[in-house]
Amino acid sequence: xxxxxxxxxxxxxxRITDRNYRKLISIVxxxxxxxxxxxxxxxxxxxxxxxxxVSTILKKIEEQIAKPCGxxxxxxxxxxxxxxxxxxxxxxxxxxxxxxxxxxxxxDILLYRKKELSDFSLVxxxxxxxxxxxxxxxxxxxxxxxxxxxxxxxxxxxxxxxxKGWRAIEIRNADHxxxxxxxxxxxxxxx
Length: 191
What we know:
alpha/beta, six-stranded parallel sheet, 6 helices, 6 strands
């Protein structure tokens, strides 16, 4: 039987070829079949910051995910975690791992200064403001957040996990960065 697939949605400006993402792929490849997605994480036609709405970007990503995906895992970091969350509302993955979930949906977007949201296009900001944190088709969800992260990120992870009955794990000594502490935490969750 083929290994379950593992999808990764990197953070803003990150590349799947970055050193720590390559380390993550090495960790997951023992148990999963890493399945790359064709996407951009910054200022391209089908990326956040580009002209397309979030719904269009998600559709383009969803079209690349093999169905059924009930044995597969999706992991997102930061804005990638937000995308993974929104994909998991429609797709029933075995497990969604959301690392440093960017809290920019619904009323959360009001917690940011306009300058902090400038990476998103106006169309995307308007769309995200209308979204909340909908129920997910994926039942097993783990939220990871760094102990040194901004309080908004930590609080959103704690509130979501409590309200939805998900597991939340603080990664000690981690900031909003996919570093070694984060990789150790992800490894514990997966293996």
